[in-house]
Each structure stands twice: as C-alpha cells, then as structure tokens.
C-alpha cells in the first residue's frame, strides 16, 4: 500500500515528489516493511533527494528488482551547454551517499561494504535525426563520457574510480529507413579490491518482463545479450557493436476495437567485448530483437518485444532469450 504525491508550479521552477509505501504482505519476512522516496528539483537543474528502502512499482511484476534495501542521500545538477534541436549537449552530475546497502546493479552484485559514497558526472552530446516513416533515429552521432568515483571508510579512506565513454554513429544505407549503427566503447577502472562494486559488469538484454524503460536495452554500454546479466566483470574493457535496424513494417487497419498494431521493427546486431585484456578474455555475440508497437485509444502506446542471442568465448557459450512488455510511449 502506498501514497504518491507531486507538488509543482506551472513553470516547473519547484518540483517536489514524495512516494511512501508499506508492505502489507511479504513472502520473505526479512525484507523491510517501510519504503520512502523523496525528491526536490529546482528549475529542473538542481536535485536533492532521499531514499529509504526505495521501491519500484514495476518490481511487483518482475523477477529482477530495482528496489534497494538501505538508504541513499543524493544531490544532483543537470546543465545543458547546448540545446539547439537536434543537437543537445548535456552534463549530469550526482553525489550520493549509500548506507546499509546489501547489493548493487539490480540487487545482483553484492557490495564490499554497506556504506560508501559515489560521485559521478556524465557528458552527453547527441545530434541525431530521423525522417517521416522511420521507427528510430537514422543518422547522426552521439558521444557519451562518464567519470565515477567510489569512496568508503572515513577513518581510513579507500578510493576507486571508473572512466568510460561511447561513440555511436548512425547512417542510412541500402534502402530508405534501413539504418546502420556502429558503437565503440571503452573503459578503465582505478583498482581497489575493497570496492568490488566499482568493477565493470556486463551481460544480459536488460529487459524485464513488464517495463517502462526503452525496449532496446541491448544498446546500453554494459549490456551483452547471450551472457546472463552482469555475469562478466573486470577492470578495463573495449566493446564494439554493429547493428542493422530494418525499415519498419506499418499497418493501417490491424485492430481490435480501439487497439491498433501500429508497426513492427526488427534489429540484428553483433557485439565484441575484450575484457581484462591482460587475460585475453574475449567475447562475441549475435542477436536479434523484434518489437510490436501498439496504439491504444489513439493516444496511448505499448511495445511487445522479443529477443534472442548467443554469446561465445574461447571455451564457453551461452544462449538467452526474453519476452517483454513496455507500457507508455517509447
């Protein structure tokens, strides 16, 4: 049971949201009863927030949970250096203190210590275009770079850090609306064995059974379909992704009442990952994903996605597949 409230002015100078809940019925009695999330934003630039056993509504329907046991105190700042559509350059910065945390990365990665600080900043430059009749961006460039600092133990401080970046190039080829994508990414970690959670973790499609996030999760830097999610980890990496997005197949009159099948799109891709190159740990995968995009009552949208992939290394092979439903617009 929960209550959600949001208070804001028309220009969004002040934006306050509060979400609190109580777990009436639990299969696991060891899990916490009370949950709270509060966030205040000023001019959509400055952010101040606090989570106490922060929950996620979609955890009710999924085996992989985003909700996290513990406390999170954070401040953030978002700044646009350029906002001239279609070109945007944005920096996002956050400093967060975690207390009493048990696991990280969708609760799949145990932390080395329950209390630690994470400071991170990300710069993103996006200049992407699309044409009428497309289902996704078709041409342009996107650059992303991030620096993340981990710190723990005030009396005898321990530090570790990550730096990584990605470049994405899109272009049309062969036929109208047929898009080729090249993604190149690399990262380096300043080691500290006291911070297991600061390693780079790879694996999985990223999609959950019922979701409200982008259905094409495999495009994220740390996704590697075929391998179980977050099953690979290391201190440095180089990754390349080749993807072809086929032209969408559109429908004009496939409907059941006020529910319409708008279009179907298909993507095929291959990724290469060199992880911990001193050990020559090399992986490659091949995968595909199909998305059925529906319109409901002419204004709402949902996407039914399915994907499969196979991943190989020198002496290992994995296969994986998923079916996922995303609510709301893409």
Offer a quick outline of the entry.
The chain is mostly beta strands. The chain has strands at residues 2-8, 14-22, 34-42, 46-52, 71-84, 87-99, 103-104, 109-110, 116-129, 139-152, 158-172, 179-190, 200-202, 210-211, 232-234, 236-245, 249-250, 255-256, 259-275, 281-296, 300-312, 317-327.
Features:
330 residues; two-stranded antiparallel sheet; globular; mainly beta
What does this protein look like?
- With 330 residues, this protein is mostly beta strands.
- The chain contains no helices and 22 strands.
- It has an 18-stranded mixed β-sheet that branches. Strands 7-8 form a two-stranded antiparallel ribbon.
- The chain is globular, with a radius of gyration of 21 Å.
- The relative contact order is 0.10.
The number of E-state strands comes to 22
Terminal residue distance: 28 Å
Major sheet summary line: 18 strands, mixed
* Residues in helix, %: under 10%
Q: Could you report the average pLDDT, rounded to the nearest whole number?
A: 93
Shape: globular
Total of DSSP H or I helical runs spanning 4+ residues = 0
Low-pLDDT segments: none
Calculate Rg over CA atoms. Answer: 21 Å
| Helix/sheet category | mainly beta
- Order of helix and strand elements from N to C terminus: EEEEEEEEEEEEEEEEEEEEEE
The portion of residues forming beta strands comes to over 45%
């Amino acid at each position: 049971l929960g209550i959600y409230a949001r208070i804001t002015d028309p220009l969004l100078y002040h934006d306050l949201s509060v979400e609190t809940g109580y777990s009436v019925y639990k299969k696991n009695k060891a899990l916490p009863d009370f949950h709270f999330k509060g966030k205040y934003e000023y001019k959509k630039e400055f952010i101040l927030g606090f989570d106490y056993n922060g929950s996620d509504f979609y955890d009710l329907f999924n085996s992989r949970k985003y909700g996290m046991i513990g406390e999170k105190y954070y401040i953030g700042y978002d700044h646009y250096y350029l906002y001239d559509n279609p070109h945007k350059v944005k920096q996002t910065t956050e400093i967060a203190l975690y207390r009493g945390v048990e696991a990280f990365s969708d609760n799949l990665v145990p932390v080395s210590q329950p209390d630690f600080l994470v400071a991170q900043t990300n710069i993103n430059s996006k200049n992407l275009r699309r044409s009428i009749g497309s289902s996704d961006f078709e041409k342009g460039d996107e650059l992303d770079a991030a620096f993340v600092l981990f710190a723990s133990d005030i009396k005898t401080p321990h530090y570790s850090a990550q730096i990584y970046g990605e470049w994405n190039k899109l272009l049309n080829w062969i036929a109208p609306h047929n898009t080729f994508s090249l993604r190149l990414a690399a990262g380096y970690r300043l080691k500290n064995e006291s911070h297991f959670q600061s390693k780079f973790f790879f694996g999985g499609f990223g999609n959950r059974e019922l979701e409200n996030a982008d259905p094409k999760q495999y495009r994220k830097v740390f996704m590697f379909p075929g391998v179980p999610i977050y099953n690979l980890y290391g201190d440095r990496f180089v990754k390349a992704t080749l993807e072809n997005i086929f032209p969408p197949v559109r429908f004009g009159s496939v409907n059941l009442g006020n529910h319409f099948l708008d279009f179907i799109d298909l993507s095929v891709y291959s990724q290469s990952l060199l992880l911990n190159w001193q050990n020559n740990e090399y992986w490659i995968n091949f995968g595909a994903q199909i998305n059925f995009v529906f319109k409901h009552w002419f204004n709402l949208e949902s996407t039914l996605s399915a994907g499969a992939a196979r991943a190989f290394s020198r002496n290992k092979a994995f296969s994986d597949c998923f079916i996922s439903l995303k609510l709301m617009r893409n």
